[in-house]
Write the structure tokens for this entry.
Amino acid sequence: MLEGSETYSGPAASLLVGLDMRHIRLCPAIAFNQIVGGRYKLHILCVLHRGPHRFGEIGRSLLKGGLGKPITPRILSRELKDLEQRGLIERKSYPVVPRKVEYSLAERGRALLPILAEIIRWGATGAHEEILEVA
Amino acid sequence: MLEGSETYSGPAASLLVGLDMRHIRLCPAIAFNQIVGGRYKLHILCVLHRGPHRFGEIGRSLLKGGLGKPITPRILSRELKDLEQRGLIERKSYPVVPRKVEYSLAERGRALLPILAEIIRWGATGAHEEILEVA
DNA sequence: CTGCATCCTTTGGGATACTG
DNA sequence: CAGTATCCCAAAGGATGCAG
């Protein structure tokens, strides 16, 4: 947040010339991290972009392309709840037994897909794996 | 990482059809978070994309569009070192007094600019500020 | 000016067990 | 199946002070 009520003309402003960002006060890059930061959220959106998934399915899907360890139910539950509260995904519960709950991308979540696509394109060269090797 | 030596055909695969990702083992979205995750790294790249900046300048620039609090030297130093080790930025030290050190985007860092641009475009609608209000 | 050292607080994430 | 409850650990980040 800025002191006073200036609008955002900061670091990101010149990246896309001709874009009207006079009403923006917060750097989108920071917001992006706050919204989909952490180990799983972005990956979850990745999974859901292919269609609705159930709780357990998401958990198993996170294993593929992930870092080896399965997400625990507690964390997955927390992440999903957070994404839902922010309106990025939708939760639909079916009154059957055994229980069935489906998660899917909401409009706000779909708005992130172009970013995701750009990340994937970046990863297609293998750049991300080289960079991580440094650690 | 996957068990065995399968290649990555996971969640992200369908986002960009026609892209050869058979050699990729790790979901780029996860790597992206590991590389530029945290409160500052993405914002730092934002700043540097406009040209070389000095240590102190970066610190001050992070204030604009940031979340109010200034970054402490210790953290800034750590972030810069990490970005440099991974080859995303370059450090150039001038032997003058008082000291002068300039940081700039390296090739690997510039490869991230399309992603950044997409994030900014997403932010231009104000979506990120609405979503963050939920908190 | 550009950092490093020390110490401390907060947050994120994992283990395990249990419930409707 | 879809979560919750408890407890715990590790990592991220902040405050303050000092140094080349």
The longest strand of chain B covers residues 89-94.
